[in-house]
Write a structure and sequence with these properties.
The chain is an alpha+beta fold.
Length: about 325
């Protein structure tokens, strides 16, 4: 009997030890696997037609050109927004050379700004969709020189930090395989100085928002720069997309699933973005065009599948124990 009792106690201790180990493993996995927000983003991704397009602005004309779309503000004689998708392959494109063929946009029903409006104004014809993002096509690059894609920019901004930001966005496309970009003037903080007979408004500020919707690191970032020489580093001008929406009155990325939109637009982590400037000379000699549809890879897909299953398990466990609220407070859910 003594031997049986000793054996039973030994088995019991082993079972207790096993349970403790399993509990510790469960808690460890809870800590290292995604929480609710991260899970929402990790199962997102994929193709959404027109993802780059903001919601239409009442009374404005939507115009499509090669590679980009704009919403023309007749009162300000410039776009409220210009939107396009930029891929890694397009950033590395070298088909076209800059020709500077600035011209009126006959697509604008009410008539666009003119070359005469800018002549002698002291302001640059500042691209909203930058020509260098469209070197993948001669037609696309030429289309960026329509005056419907221009806004009167202080030269020290246009040729300074704004140009740096454009190069940073190209590098973001390289780093993240593709990004969805929306750019424009802030037209909600007038009154504005105007130039030319068309009375083209001179904005006080410009914005740019960028969305990375490629698994596994879905994120968004915004920037707001004053129409003057900028002395600070680009990080100083970072904003959440929500903040840019509040400033501009625009609705960016409405095609996103609501839960994803709520997360990516309300937060920004500059540590997840590179602020290096793009250089075409940095393209690897052995560079091969990226197949976006398969670029995530089997490892990332398996990781997402495991995270999805384990998230459901831990959510159910904490729910049964009545500890869901506490688990969320401690980052376990």
């Amino acid at each position: 009997m003594a031997k049986k009792g000793k054996k039973k106690r030994h088995v019991t201790r082993r079972l207790i030890l096993l349970v403790v180990i399993l509990v510790l493993i469960f808690i460890a996995l809870c800590l290292v696997t995604p929480g609710e927000d991260e899970m929402t983003l990790s199962v997102a991704g994929g193709e959404i037609p027109g993802l780059e397009l903001p919601a239409p602005v009442e009374g404005e004309q939507i115009i499509e050109h090669t590679g980009y779309t704009l919403s023309y503000n007749e009162d300000a004689e410039q776009p409220s927004w210009v939107a396009y998708c930029l891929t890694r392959d397009e950033a590395y494109g070298d088909v076209a050379e800059r020709e500077d063929d600035f011209r009126e946009d006959r697509s604008v029903r009410s008539g666009s700004a003119t070359l005469a409006d800018y002549r002698g104004s002291g302001y640059d014809r500042g691209h909203m969709a930058p020509a260098a993002d469209f070197k993948w096509s001669a037609e696309a690059m030429s289309d960026t020189f329509y005056l419907s894609n221009m806004s009167p920019q202080n030269g020290s901004l246009n040729r300074g930090l704004w140009a740096d930001l454009e190069a940073i966005v190209r590098q973001m496309a390289v780093d993240n395989e593709k990004v969805y970009v929306v750019t424009g003037p802030v037209l909600t903080d007038g009154p504005f100085e105007t130039i030319g007979e068309s009375r083209v408004a001179v904005p006080h500020q410009y914005y740019k928002v960028v969305l990375d919707y490629t698994d596994p690191d879905i994120k968004a970032i915004g920037f707001v720069l004053p129409n003057e020489k900028c002395e600070e580093d680009i990080e100083y001008y970072v904003r959440t997309v929500d903040e840019v929406e509040e400033l501009t009155g625009l609705d960016f990325y409405p095609a996103l699933p609501d839960d994803v939109e709520s997360i990516v637009e309300s937060q920004v982590d500059i540590g997840r973005w590179s602020f290096r400037q793009f250089s075409s000379s940095s393209r690897p000699d052995d560079y091969q065009p990226t197949d976006i549809s398969t670029s995530t890879g089997s490892t990332a897909k398996l990781e997402n599948a495991f995270n999805t299953v384990f998230y459901e398990i831990k959510a159910e466990v904490f729910s049964i124990l009545g500890l869901s609220g506490i688990a969320k407070d401690f980052g376990l859910l």
